[in-house]
Write a structure and sequence with these properties.
Blueprint (H helix, E strand, L loop, with lengths): L7 E4 L5 H9 L4 E5 L10 H9 L6 E6 L4 H10 L4 E4 L5 H4 L6 E6 L6 H7 L5 E5 L26 E3 L8 H8 L3 E4 L4 E3 L2 E2 L1 H20 L1
Parallel strand pairs: 1-2, 1-8, 2-3, 3-4, 4-5, 5-6, 6-7, 7-8
Antiparallel strand pairs: 9-10
Helix pairs in contact: 6-7
Length: 216
């Protein structure tokens, strides 16, 4: 990583405009909006549109879906200015690639996963998000996985997720050196309600990890 490079930060599961604005003010590069009704961080389309309308410029908006039908995704894209799609279910690469938006694909780090093969399968993705595996749960477990499972030579940009918080994200970034990190529950006071102090601490820990590589 050069002295000018930095780890990107996404704050996911945004449900309130004040949290979106706080994330942007504290240095987040992207916010995530969850269009999965079973999630405690689910957001309705009209509310998501209001949040996006209130964002400052140069903050990427990410729409998260789990095995959603084309109709739902089309409705969201017609009403919400989503920049990037994030797929967290069993979607195929063809299903991810047919909506006229760039996308990232979440891969859960289950035992025996052929990570290189999975990354190759989603070659059209802008990046892959690596998350913790728990049977029957598509994400948001609040648990981390063994970061040593991530090869250092993957060509596809890696977004590291899974149980990250202000206490462990510096170590995670220093060990994996991902393109970006993704956090949700780790900066919350309750599901869907972000805590400004924890967001600040998270961002500062990521930046400390970035500086540590510049010094090496």
């Amino acid at each position: 990583m050069s002295s000018e490079a930095r780890t990107r930060i996404k704050i996911c599961g945004i449900t309130r405009i004040e949290d979106a604005l706080a994330a942007a003010a504290m240095g987040a590069d992207a916010i995530g909006l969850v269009f999965y009704a079973k999630s405690p961080r689910y957001i309705a389309i009209d509310r998501a549109a209001e949040i996006c309308a209130g964002l400052p410029p140069l903050v990427t908006t990410v729409g998260l879906f789990v095995d959603a039908g084309k109709g739902l995704i089309a409705d969201v894209l017609a009403q919400v200015p989503i920049d990037l799609l994030q797929f967290h279910g069993s979607e195929t690469s063809a299903e991810c690639d047919c909506h006229g938006r760039p996308y990232i694909k979440a891969l859960r780090m289950r035992p025996g996963l052929d990570l290189r093969g999975a990354v190759a399968e989603f070659a059209s993705a802008r990046g892959v998000l690596l998350d913790t595996y728990r049977p029957g749960v598509p994400g948001g477990t609040g648990e981390s996985f063994d970061w040593s499972q991530v090869p250092s030579d993957l060509k596809t940009p890696i977004i590291l997720a899974g149980g990250l918080n202000p206490s462990n994200v510096r170590n995670a970034v220093e060990r994996v050196r991902p393109w970006a990190v993704d956090v949700s529950g780790g900066v919350e006071s309750a599901p869907g309600l972000k805590d400004g102090r924890r967001i600040t601490d998270f961002v500062e820990a990521v930046r400390a990890a970035d500086r540590s590589e510049c010094i090496e």
